[in-house]
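User: Assemble these into one structure.

Assistant: Restating your components, then the assembled model:
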Amino acid sequence: MTFFTPGPAALYPAFEKHLKSFMDRQLGSISHRSQAYRDLHQFTVEQLRTLLSVPDTHQILFLGSASEIWERILLNCVEHESFHLVNGSFSQKFRDYADALRKYTHGFEKPMGEGFEATEITVPEYAEIICATHNETSAGVQMQVADIHKLKTKYPDKLLAVDMVSSAPYPALDYGLVDTAFFSVQKAFGMPAGLGVWIVNEQCLSKAERLKQYENLTIGAHHDLPTLWKFAQKHETPATPNVMAIYILGKIAEDFNRIGIDTLRKETEHKAGLLYNFIKKHQNFEASVKEPRLQSQTVVVANTKIDSSAVIGKLKEKGMVIGSGYGEFKSSQVRIANFPATSVAQTDGLVKALERLF
Amino acid sequence: MTFFTPGPAALYPAFEKHLKSFMDRQLGSISHRSQAYRDLHQFTVEQLRTLLSVPDTHQILFLGSASEIWERILLNCVEHESFHLVNGSFSQKFRDYADALRKYTHGFEKPMGEGFEATEITVPEYAEIICATHNETSAGVQMQVADIHKLKTKYPDKLLAVDMVSSAPYPALDYGLVDTAFFSVQKAFGMPAGLGVWIVNEQCLSKAERLKQYENLTIGAHHDLPTLWKFAQKHETPATPNVMAIYILGKIAEDFNRIGIDTLRKETEHKAGLLYNFIKKHQNFEASVKEPRLQSQTVVVANTKIDSSAVIGKLKEKGMVIGSGYGEFKSSQVRIANFPATSVAQTDGLVKALERLF
């Protein structure tokens, strides 16, 4: 069965090989305070640094999930007010987390399926952080990296946080302009869920250290940024980490580096092109996002005239699994993940099957 | 190499088989909102319920780690004040978390290696929760289950939280008296780290719901108890969970249930007896905990006249790995895990090797 689901997604083909080497080397039993662990941790961080061009001003930290990272950013980097670009369920949840943490939130909201451009965004004066979602998985909308960067140029004194959960390593973020970004491994890295990766810079750390001094405020006890940072400097984590996932992530990042990030990005765009071309010319499907520059390259969402369960059911008989729409669009849309785990040939096979079936 | 390290510890022998079945069934790619996932989740919860005799008044929840659960208990179940029994590094960290969350903490402290009895404990009037550690891994001290239960009988209006990270499923807790308890899977369940299990009752839920109404307080945004509980009722988690670990935990709990919890507990005590007997009669070693009823059955700690690195090094040559002392006792103590993953024969082999070598 080939999974084109948006996450948990298809496992990366080399995943099983790396899992086997983890078991063969008995890494499941090593102490997280040993040199063997520190070497493993450092390897993964270095591979990710290379892959995503993360400079030394930023640390790369390992947490339980991207949802946990939403919370940690808001606790550690916001005293009073946050600003959110909201155009779907996941960007909305980021804002909901801020509300639950008793922050005062501002939002610029658009209906699902619509996207944002830098020129139309005004950030309120007292907002301390701008929370942008590079790829809104629920709706298949992406924000152009150039627009994300412009936000920081326009508002240099505010922190900029980028959710790239369902797109990393595709977006070529400039970490000279992005203060913090994060993703989870069950999307484009083709791993089972259970690990979130937090990229975060010294400005965020300074802010967390300042907030920690305030007696009426908490930055959290578990996974607070100053403690995570201190341990990361010696290639460790404060609590026992998901060593298996950290090891395999490093190996897959190494595989990605061997292929080369430019090749990976071009392949992503090529495969997305195959899918959008099919959707464009087929009468039963249409892209849910009209504007081509806002169409997600990593999660392709199509409105379908046939009930999504019928599309999904027929494809399943051919050994292919795609996702339903999200929430209220469950039956009227399908979502097709386009991650490195699925090859050009497999994407081609999916398009051919769709052509034959509908 | 056989690992007798206190965690991450030896993998349970059946772990690899369960991992293979996870891969063969492509469970790494299933949606966490599918019936396939809900069935898997429910299976694990039911196996744990049977194994630990958890009644329906309590939910069993899955989080990232036991450290995360420390934080979630304090955020969700404490408005102002908590009380902690502290006799080592891990019970101290539970209290440190409460301080970081701006709670007012009370503690009854003893030096490492000493234990607690119910009769000597007085809980301050305004403390809302009693935080006890069943097994203090850093020092090898356990608290008798009967003493833990007496605390609740003596203070029925306070919540009782039991850290059983490095001993579950050994302690036979009575959940009629324990409001919440928790553990992580890299100890006695013989799995790689990356999953914490939180057992929690309706009293804790009610308290969290009440605190959520207070405008000046936060119970957290990620993994807050009311949200975790709501999803657990439909056999789901709020965010994408560590499906692999949840699946394998269910399978290992099923293995444990087949052996039978009484047999497992007796075997644990038998193997601990072999280790303590050796330590008692050998001139170079002595139990760090003098009082037999306070000696941990799951993590045996011995003072050693030979530097611990020499003991560890020589055993390693024989294919066996034991742990060093914790913190300041790193070189003057050794710690030997006694979990179900290591058999009576292996424990016997370790004792024989120690007898020959020293």
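The radius of gyration of chain B is 20 Å.
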